[in-house]
Design goal:
This protein is an all-alpha fold and 134 residues long. Helix content is 80%, strand content 0%. α2 packs antiparallel against α3, α3 runs antiparallel to α4 and α3 crosses α5. The longest helix has 31 residues.
Length: 134
């Protein structure tokens, strides 16, 4: 069982209102702002899923590689997110205010929502200790 991928999929489903509502709020300003916010939010969400994929892949190899991936995976995700944001900025005339507000709102909202789910113990059906597939 790829626990990290299941958790990341659940997180993306729980966070769906966040990265869809924020672009709708920017639609009040302009269509360009909405598109910028939508793409920025999707880049951040895909960065979270990439991190889960890396952790799941590393866990299948070894526990030491899992720890290494946890330590340096965060930096890799940040490089991924900012790299794609810079690429998007060069390819599309963005609204800089929409991007600069969307990225931290979506990033922090996803983190705090997942923290609340951990505190409420919403994912107790997933157990790493009982996983005998590796």
């Amino acid at each position: 069982m790829n626990v990290e991928l299941i958790l990341a999929t659940r997180m993306l489903k729980r966070s769906f209102p966040i990265y869809t509502l924020v672009p709708l709020l920017f639609l009040i300003k302009s269509t360009e702002s909405m598109i910028t916010s939508l793409v920025s939010g999707l880049i951040v969400a895909s960065g979270f899923y990439l991190g889960a994929f890396l952790m799941s892949f590393a866990a299948n190899i070894s526990l030491n590689f899992y720890y290494f991936s946890a330590l340096f995976g965060y930096v890799a995700r940040l490089i991924y997110i900012f790299g794609f944001l810079l690429l998007f900025r060069n390819l599309y005339p963005i609204d800089e205010m929409a991007m600069s507000l969307t990225v931290p709102i979506v990033f922090l909202s996803m983190l705090f929502l997942e923290m609340a789910m951990v505190i409420k113990r919403k994912d107790t059906d997933l157990d790493w200790a009982n996983d005998n597939s590796s």
